[in-house]
């Protein structure tokens, strides 16, 4: 069964808050959450949905680059391809947009990958998780992302999150360096025994990361995410040797070749898996298998994902039984979306939908309402 048509729909979803990274705010409220939705239709009229949700201050891709890549290169490359040959699907996309250390514009490619997974599940009448071939769990615990400018704000956000049922807290550090220790201390104090870890998004030098690791140890943290630049393999190794904290990589977990090299150099203990960052579910499951076989800790993460990316991640993270709370924070920031019915989340636990495909329905009237014209 072959792909007959690929359609691309840029949309802007309204936000109720913005996320701050060491490089600055990931986007503005006016900018909103800008996503390229992809609708893949097969010869029998069956449909699957995917999306590209870039974060321009985190990745090298933008909405404009994703839309132009999808419309001009990736969609024409995959029309006529067998939907069940996902490896061949990626080979076609990789011939059009070359692979480097990462899969080559992975966020753009992710949209087609996820749409085809959704389409396969719908055709077969099974959830995507079943197609992935693993059912270690049927849900994942969500973490609350704490990005605060002061310890007082961090404590307030954490207390509110506890009332909402959160039991995991990921604290952004590296952009208010003089306050980082006090901010993390405030979160730990307000978390009611919940799991807390720090994420620097490459924001520290090696010396700064070494100093902060000692502070985090004293506060009872066990995990430190991407403390130094993704290219600083020497720094990663020095940190691993200097601290009992689990040093997990996020930006550095960009693709299988680089992760394999980091494992060879003994420079990694944990991987933050982002479905979009690695080019979709096809590569994400390979990275999960690699991590498990290498004895690494798996951490679930996202890019403030809209519902399609959120759903794909829940299917994958539950399939691999990720025990730590996962940083899928789209619902924390996105005010409205394009779903016909809300995704099943209860007490900050996201459940794998048991309906075919991703198990979500797209309201195309909402897609048209949120449409963002990009004429290229």
UniProtKB/TrEMBL annotation:
Name used for this protein in its record: Mandelate racemase
Family note: Belongs to the mandelate racemase/muconate lactonizing enzyme family.
Keywords: Isomerase, Metal-binding
Lineage: Bacteria, Pseudomonadati, Pseudomonadota, Betaproteobacteria, Burkholderiales
SMART domains: MR_MLE
Gene Ontology MF: a single term: racemase and epimerase activity
GO BP, one annotated term: peptide metabolic process
Top-level taxon: Bacteria
Record-linked Pfam families: MR_MLE_C (PF13378), MR_MLE_N (PF02746)
